[in-house]
Amino acid sequence: MEQFSLTLPSDALPQNIASATLCGVVSSGNLEILVEPAAASDACRIVVNTSAHGFRDIWEAVLKDFARRHSVGGLSLSINDAGATPAVVSLRLDQAFETCRGELA
Amino acid sequence: MNGLQISYFEASARKRLSELVDAGSLVEFCPPEMRQTSPHLAMLDAPLAFDDGVVTGRASLSGHKVLIAAQEGRFNGGAVGEVHGAKIRGLLDRALSERPAAVLLLIDSGGVRLHEANAGLIAISEIMRAVLRVQAAGIPVFALVGGSCGAFGGMGIVTRLCTEVVMSEQGRLGLSGPEVIETVKGVEEFDSRDRALVWRITGGKLRRALGEATLLVDDLIPAFRTAAAKLIERYRAHPPVPADLDELLGAQAELTERSVRFAAARDGREIWQADFAEASRVPEMTVAEFNALLGEAA
């Protein structure tokens, strides 16, 4: 497994979220994302645990794009990944963001 | 919900659970934010899941308190590791003090998680003993089987230890899975890639015809919910009573007779011939038609 974390500046999410929301399942080519509130409201903290070694640059590009597209300041994301492609990661991030705000069941 | 019919087979464990119980009633035990992950998978440098592949909690179903576990078949085939097993066993132990109307096990598992070897085997044996203890205390345990991994290995045994077994046609129940049998005994014994054959032998319709599943329902979460609610009502009126020795000997004699009667059977069709005039039509029958022909009200 390869693990890394990064803190990305992002606009503060203008609402409170549930204490924890889980999205996705850790299966081949898929990932789970646990969304929790974080202390700093002007940044999003992300911990990635992935079975695919050597793709940190691509992870950072996908995560930075996510933090730019949405106001995710004040969120903490913990990711368990079993080799999802960047497109799947991006879709799952969007789903996690919607779910933590109560937009999806 | 938006009125779409939700396939039980296709849904994740969390989706099944949230649609099965009364809306918003689930209180999860050992939730993902506690990060009770598998130390064995970590040592093997394998991917972890924050809930170790099983959701456990307390909820209400049609207003009745239930304790409930849902295995996630897509995480390591729903296989039971040390933490995963401890969560289910702990849930069953909790039933002894909380005394819910029922314990529901949404089983979707190939059995023991081989990465965890003895710890997984011990976990399964603990679950088996706990299922029996809970029933001995007068609390029914219902197995719901309709996921892609079915109920195999140790979880197949756990399923048959439950008070009632609700299956869909898509659900499968067995001890050794088709691929294991093919690997050990050869493709002539069981072609695990012949999906129609696999379902005719391990699927819900044959299990229902043999009495190993006690209810056959459509592959829809609301169908499982309705079945579970009916069972809860039935067992509130008549709590489960442990079988006495005569009953167990009777069941053993029936199984012995069955093994002789169907000794030459190579396919589910040959067994359906005992119950159905048109055995070859059974795979295409709707659940309602199948249940009606079995003489059971839908």
TrEMBL record, chain A:
Keywords: Cytoplasm, Phosphoprotein
Keyword Cytoplasm: yes
InterPro entries noted in UniProt: Mal_deCO2ase/Cit_lyase_ACP, Malonate_deCO2ase_dsu
Gene Ontology CC annotation, any one: cytoplasm
Protein location: Cytoplasm
Residues annotated as transmembrane: none
Keyword presence, Lipid metabolism: no
Broad class of the protein's primary localization: cytoplasm
Entry-linked NCBIfam families: malonate_delta
Name used for this protein in its record: Malonate decarboxylase acyl carrier protein
UniProtKB/TrEMBL annotation, chain B:
Coiled coil, from the record: none
Record-level GO BP terms: carbohydrate metabolic process; fatty acid biosynthetic process; malonyl-CoA biosynthetic process
PROSITE patterns (alphabetical): COA_CT_NTER
Keywords: Transferase
The enzyme's E.C. designation: 2.1.3.10
Gene name as annotated: madC_2
Signal peptide annotation: none
Domain CoA carboxyltransferase N-terminal: 1-240
Transferase recorded as keyword: yes
Organism of provenance: mine drainage metagenome
GO molecular function, one term: transferase activity
Protein name as catalogued: Malonyl-S-ACP:biotin-protein carboxyltransferase MADC
Pfam families named in the record: Carboxyl_trans (PF01039)
RNA-binding is among the record's keywords: no
